[in-house]
Design goal:
The complex is a heterodimer of chains A (812) and B (221).
Chain A: H1 8-21, H2 23-62, E1 68-71, H3 80-88, E2 93-103, E3 106-113, H4 134-138, E4 144-146, H5 148-153, E5 163-165, E6 173-177, H6 178-182, E7 192-195, H7 208-213, E8 214-217, H8 225-261, H9 263-271, H10 276-321, H11 333-360, H12 373-400, H13 404-436, H14 440-491, E9 496-499, H15 503-514, E10 519-532, E11 535-542, H16 546-551, E12 554-557, H17 561-566, E13 570-573, H18 574-580, E14 587-592, E15 595-605, E16 613-618, H19 619-625, E17 633-638, H20 641-650, E18 658-660, H21 661-714, H22 719-761, H23 771-797, H24 801-811
Parallel strand pairs in A: 3-6, 4-5, 11-16, 13-15
Antiparallel strand pairs in A: 1-7, 1-8, 2-3, 2-7, 4-6, 9-17, 9-18, 10-11, 10-17, 12-15, 13-16, 14-15
Helix pairs in contact in A: 1-10, 2-8, 2-10, 2-11, 2-21, 8-11, 8-14, 8-21, 8-22, 10-11, 10-21, 12-13, 13-14, 13-22, 14-21, 14-22, 14-23, 21-23, 21-24, 22-23
Chain B: E1 2-12, E2 17-28, E3 33-37, H1 44-51, E4 59-64, E5 67-68, H2 74-83, E6 85-88, H3 100-110, H4 116-125, H5 141-154, E7 159-163, H6 171-188, E8 191-195, H7 199-203, E9 207-212, E10 215-218
Parallel strand pairs in B: 3-8, 3-9, 6-7, 7-8
Antiparallel strand pairs in B: 1-2, 1-4, 4-5, 9-10
Helix pairs in contact in B: 3-5, 4-5
The chains are: A alpha+beta (812), B alpha/beta (221).
Bound molecules: adenosine-5'-triphosphate and magnesium ion.
Chain lengths: 812, 221
């Protein structure tokens, strides 16, 4: 028998016609999907932009010194011949010019690099103009890579090579090819040779004439801001993920409802000759259409959100550096693609079970009534069982597979399990309140509230997740802030840090400083490198002084640790202890260029933000055992840092080699403050999304509500009274959910600081509990539910007596 | 045209197994209109669902001309329903979000066989003119049933299976609707199987098939 081709557009039209008559459902679906996409892509855009800005700003502070070979005598600079000799010996070195130049009275930092030999993994590489084409960069007339701001400053200049803009650079920073830098009118030769960070630069192996003239200068490492902000970005990403989940919950609810409502339609389509396969295809097409629309709206929203939050961020950075770090959002094409993909995958994921059930739906028996009282209780028990299973898998996965991915998976498991178990917890809780209640109205109130749990469960779950995420991320950010404030105070206790051009120069400057009455102490911060089990560690030599004794807190220590360090023991950072399971009292063995050295561990210190292992020991002990200790770094205690900096500059020290710790501290703190602001804004948005879910849920329920409220109306309660009771019921359920969200939030925070952060960075934050936050959040929940519940309640208060009476007519 | 051979079907309820159909055999020729009668719960709806390829029998075969419906998979059975079968079931199967006019035209449009003049004459014959723009929920039960019948007749199927199509209609309307169905049978030579509890209506058809104790007996036998 010939079959005519099917006209799918009529199937689609029939499916879509549903939404025209259920606009609220459509709104819930689109809002959920768009909000999820907006929150996710907004966080990504923000993260991206913030990272670029921080990097550019951090260069000003931490990009000031590189691991390099420098001349022992500043008057006898390293020549290009020396460079070629070293390359011929197989040393991965690259020539560099790093100096200040004055153009029209403004000081710029000029950096000349040799891109072909520049070590890939050197710190230098992060400032190298990766986006710039190689050939025009290295060939005359050359190029000067600068930030857009610097390009504007230098617009009329003809001495410099043609400008190329790069947003990765800080203002007043000029990068050019080494040839161009050496050809500048007032050129002074090479500053030094950059050495790959992991190269064992043992100068003892060099020919005698070089060995005498060259020394290795290890960079001065203060708190590494880049790595520290990375941790924040990771947490922000986790938060973006949580917001996305909340949005998806709404989508899941809206899709579930629309599929339930359209069951008769699906059946009719099947009767009319649309196969299950074609129906599923049409539903997926419909969903893709929605997802694409929502993705566009959501990503515009995300971009808007990021650009609204961004000015604060660039403002604080520019306040710090007097430089415009870039206040316009730059979105990469990949960002758009990723956003659309996540929106589409999210929609399909949220619809997967509904699609599957529809595909398997038998056409013959459709008239099962919707789940009622008893069915809900059974469904809740099932959900609780599923939740236990998921939680068990999460815990099991985390113990068997402790990794970053495992941490994120455990978090997802925790959230999903909590959401599933919520109705099963609320059910007996509200039931208990119903039994405790005295008076018929109160008793009715609670038992009616209980009967509403099933219909409201998805909205309540979304609320639970939003609150759990808020509490968790709030606790994490607070912990971060408090811990880091304390940490920065102790780590950057000295007022001033500097690194001289060479050891000899350092000794000279330290000498000169000792003579000043306004300098309380000049403390060595000397560096070397070693390995433990093949893993590179930084070795830091410090002098015993009140600065460390009194301000440093150790995470774990033997008795009298500072005295033990004096006597030859060492301190290790938390990262190192975590990696090799070391504890105070253990012995650590270092692989050094002069052989193995063993030390007793006197204590473990927090070293937030650092990515590598570090050990600290007394300067007397380590200087004797590390012959090539780089001795150019010093910390200065003084009450007049400005005067001391001026003095050091007079003495010939480049200002780029000094750090005013107040500036560093202020920068670090502003990073946290900004992220804090951003997180608070995201919290509010997530809650807003949950509020929208609640509103749409209440509105779709309002017709059913009439059925349970009509008897009370008939018994003599006014419509206003009923509306107030209904609103109160919504608020009570939301507040109970908020209470249950507290343990969830603590769980989320714990996973963030004690699992995910440790796996990602090797250090753990102390977890604080902040009840004041909970109260603030409870107030926000109250406001959210009141706002969400007001309109449905108002509608209920104004429902005509005729409609209430009709409930009885229909029941007959 | 339609052939049913040795059809058996049983349902397993939680407590026991109920054999609803136990070897049903009958045939309906093209252009023939038959009534399927039997007491409530005897399996009439079950039988129609199997013929329409909506459900699978435990055993036995259903043929439509040379095609074995019971051997088709869901996709092929759906294609058959879309192009050859017209179904009217006990519960009105209208699309709640489409207007009366769109509902009536729906299945014809699905197969690209829309014929506006024919549809308009159907609307008039079914007493639905003036209601084109309404939605099903704004119609009475009987009006909804007539829309469902209109949808089936609008695309001229070769076999119509109707499960109590006149259950909600008064006598006069029932007669009018049945007249319409029969005139289509005469015009197009399609086969017509109608379940009904009304002996008066059953008597107006060519033949009566009685389903009892899981088997079908024709009153012609
Ligand atoms: N899904 C099912 N599971 C178990 N039993 C079923 C199922 N569907 C139908 N039945 C039983 O099969 C028998 C036949 O049902 P069917 O609907 O075919 O009867 P019917 O003849 O159409 O009745 P009515 O005239 O009342 O419409 C009934 O006893 C019914 O209870
Ligand atoms: Mg029946």
């Amino acid at each position: 028998m010939p079959t005519d081709p099917i006209h799918m557009r009529w199937v689609l039209r029939a499916l879509l016609s549903h939404w025209g008559r259920h606009k609220l459902q459509l709104a819930a679906l689109m809002v959920g999907l768009a909000a999820a996409t907006a929150l996710w892509s907004g966080v990504q855009a923000l993260n991206d932009q913030a990272r670029q800005s921080y990097d550019a700003a951090a260069q000003r502070v931490s990009g000031l010194s590189f691991r390099m070979l420098v001349p022992t005598d500043p008057d006898a600079p390293i020549s290009e011949g020396d460079f070629r000799t070293l390359r011929a010996l197989g040393w991965p070195v690259s020539p560099i010019v790093d100096r200040r130049i004055l153009i029209d009275g403004t000081s710029y930092r000029l950096m000349g690099i040799e891109p072909l030999t520049l070590p890939q993994n050197s710190d230098m590489h992060s400032v190298a103009p990766g986006a710039v084409d190689l050939l025009p960069f290295i060939e005359p007339p050359y190029q000067a890579v600068v930030s857009p701001q610097t390009a504007r400053r230098l617009s009329g200049n003809t001495d410099l090579p043609p400008r190329v803009e790069s947003t990765a650079l800080a203002d007043r920073f000029i990068i050019m090819d080494i040839g161009a830098a050496l050809a500048m009118p007032d050129a002074t030769g090479l500053t030094g040779l950059v050495v790959a960070a992991d190269f064992d630069a043992n100068t003892d192996r060099l020919p005698p004439n070089l060995r005498a003239r060259i020394q290795l200068l290890e960079p001065l490492q203060s708190a590494d801001i880049g790595a520290l902000t990375d941790s924040f970005h990771l947490n922000l990403t986790a938060f973006g993920l949580l917001s996305f989940l909340v949005g998806l919950f709404i989508v899941y609810g809206a899709i579930g409802l629309s599929f339930e409502d359209r069951k008769p339609l699906f059946r009719t389509l099947r009767l009319c000759g649309v196969s299950a396969r074609r129906l599923s295809a049409a539903l997926i097409m419909e969903l893709l259409g929605f997802a694409v629309c929502a993705a566009v709206v959501g990503m515009l929203g995300g971009a808007l959100m990021a650009s609204v939050l961004l000015p604060d961020l660039s403002l604080s950075l520019s306040g710090l550096y007097g430089a415009d770090i870039g206040d316009s959002l730059r979105l990469r094409p990949l960002w758009w693609v990723a956003g659309a993909a996540i929106s589409i995958l999210g929609a399909l994921g949220a619809a997967a079970t509904a699609l599957w059930r529809t595909h398997r739906m038998p056409v013959t028996h459709l008239h099962q009534p919707r789940a009622q009282h008893g069915a809900y209780a059974r469904q809740f028990r099932w959900q609780a069982a599923a939740a236990s299973g998921i939680a068990l898998i999460g815990v099991g996965g985390l113990t068997l597979w402790p990794s970053l991915a495992g941490g994120f998976a455990a978090m997802a498991a925790l959230l999903v399990a909590s959401a599933l178990v919520l109705p099963a917890l609320l059910w007996p809780l509200v039931g208990g309140l119903a039994r405790l209640a005295s008076g018929p109205i109160a008793r009715w109130f609670w038992s009616d509230a209980r009967s509403q749990i099933g219909a409201m469960s998805l909205a309540l779950m979304a609320l639970l997740l939003a609150l759990g995420a808020s509490i968790g991320v709030g606790a994490m950010v607070n912990s971060f802030r408090i811990t880091f404030d304390g940490f920065l105070d102790e780590r950057l206790a000295a007022e001033l840090y500097f690194i001289a051009a060479s050891d000899r120069d350092g000794a000279r400057l330290a000498e000169a400083l000792h003579a000043r009455s306004d300098v309380r102490a000049v403390l060595p911060d000397w560096r070397a490198r070693a390995r433990i089990g093949g893993w590179p560690v930084d070795v830091v030599a410090f002098a015993d002084h009140a600065t460390t004794r009194e301000t440093w807190t150790l995470l774990a220590a033997l008795a009298t640790p500072w005295d033990r360090v004096q006597a030859g023991a060492v301190l290790v950072n938390e990262q190192l202890a975590h990696r090799f399971s070391l504890a105070p009292g253990d012995t650590v063995t270092l692989e050094t260029e002069t052989g193995l050295q063993s030390y007793t561990i006197a204590g473990v210190y927090a070293d937030y933000g650092n990515t590598t292992g570090q050990i600290r020991g007394d300067v007397g002990v380590l200087a004797a055992r590390f012959p090539r200790l780089s001795k150019a770094g010093f910390a200065v205690r003084t009450d007049t840092p400005a005067a001391v900096m001026a003095f050091l500059e007079q003495q010939g020290l480049d200002p780029a080699r000094m750090i005013d710790q107040r500036q560093l501290k202020a920068f670090s703190k502003s990073v946290f403050e900004q992220t804090f602001v951003v997180t608070t804004a995201l919290n509010a948005l997530t809650l807003l999304v949950a509020g929208t879910a609640l509103l749409t849920n209440l509105l779709t329920l309002s017709a059913q509500r009439l059925v349970s409220l009509a008897p009370l109306w008939a018994m003599g309660l006014t419509r206003r009274h009923l509306a107030v009771l209904d609103l109160a019921k919504t608020v009570c359920l939301a507040l109970l959910t908020a209470v249950l969200a507290i343990p969830l939030g603590i769980g989320v925070a714990w996973l963030l600081v004690a699992v995910i952060n440790v796996e990602a960075f090797g250090w753990r934050l102390p977890l604080g509990v902040y009840p004041a936050d909970w109260v603030r959040l409870a107030a926000m929940v109250l406001i959210t539910t009141l706002v969400a519940g007001l309109w449905p309640a108002w509608k209920l208060g104004r429902v005509t007596p005729a409609r209430l009476a009709k409930v009885f007519a229909d029941a007959r | 045209m339609l052939g049913v051979e040795g059809l058996t079907k049983s349902y397993t309820s939680p407590s026991r197994r109920v054999a609803v159909l136990r070897g049903v055999e009958f045939a309906v020729a093209a252009g023939e209109a038959v009534a399927l009668v039997g007491e409530s719960g005897c399996g009439k709806t079950t039988l129609l669902q199997i013929i329409a390829g909506l459900d699978k029998p435990d055993d036995g075969k259903v043929w439509l001309n040379t095609q074995e419906i019971t051997a088709l998979d869901d996709h092929a059975a759906a294609d058959l329903r879309r192009t050859a079968l017209g179904l009217v079931f006990q519960h009105y199967n209208l699309i709640a979000s489409l207007t009366v006019a769109d509902n009536v035209a729906f299945q014809a449009r699905l197969s690209g066989r829309e014929d506006t003049a024919w549809t308009a004459s159907l609307m008039r014959a079914l007493g639905l003119d003036g209601l084109e723009g309404r939605y099903p929920e704004q119609l009475s039960g009987g009006q909804q049933q007539r829309v469902a019948i209109g949808r089936t007749l609008a695309y001229r199927p070769s076999l119509i299976l109707a499960d109590e199509p006149t259950g909600n209609l008064d006598e006069d309307t029932s007669d009018a609707v049945l007249d319409l169905c029969l005139s289509l049978v005469r015009q197009t030579g399609c086969a017509f199987v109608m379940v009904t509890h009304a002996p008066r209506l059953a008597g107006r058809l060519d033949r009566r098939l009685r389903l009892s104790a899981g088997q079908v007996h024709s009153d012609a036998d």
